[in-house]
Every structure is written in structure tokens, then in C-alpha cells.
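#lab-general

N.A. 3:47 PM
ok so I finally got the sequence cleaned up, no stray characters, all 130 residues accounted for. can someone with queue access submit it? mine expired

B.Y. 3:52 PM
send it over

N.A. 3:53 PM
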Amino acid sequence: MISLWLESIAPEIILVLLGGILVLLDAFVPRLRPAFSWVTLGGVLLALVTRWSIGIPGAVWEGVLAVDSLGRFVDTYILVACGLALLMADPYLSRTNARYGEYFGLLLWAAVGAMTMAKANHLLVVFMGL
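B.Y. 4:20 PM
back already:
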């Protein structure tokens, strides 16, 4: 039971923690900014693998989140779009010499919100995902 509800939000936990770490590293260790895009892409791929490792469909968290094939498909779509946005943003940020580390954290947090809305089974969770 506990493992199912932890597995159901594991990709979101990965992305939220990685976003927080990247924002903190940007604030305190700015020389690591060139590696942020690849670290973020690795986190997105890890979240994608974690999403596909969940096998048991059903409702978790007292029925407010639905773990089903539609949610898995939408989460995969969101994570692939996030990865493509990262791959397209890196050359642009390098060309304009605008290495903003908060971009990567905000992108991950926006993906978490979209993933939460995709799995929502309750109107309040949809609002929280916004």
C-alpha cells in the first residue's frame, strides 16, 4: 500500500527535488551553470524511467490520484516535451550568453504541475496542479 502511493508520485518527487537543488546551486555555486541542462535532462529521463516502472493501475491517496494508462501516456508526453524544451533551450541560452539557472527549475516545476493535473481525480488536485 505504502509503496504504491510512493511509486505513484515518485517522478514528481524526483523533479521537485532536482528543481530545488538546481535553484540552490544557481544561487550559491554559479560556476556549475553550464552543466545544468544535462543534469536536468538526466533527471527528466530518470523520471520517465520511474514513470514506466509503475505497474499496478488504480486510485491512490484516497482516490484523488488515478494511476492508469492514460496518466502514464500524458506523463510520458509531458516529460518528452520537457526534454525537447531542454535540448532546444541549451543552444539558445549559450548563444545569447544568458545562463539563467532558474529556467531549469521552473521548467521542472511546471512539468510537475502538468503531471499532477494529468493524474488528478479530484477538482482540488487539478487546482493544486495549476
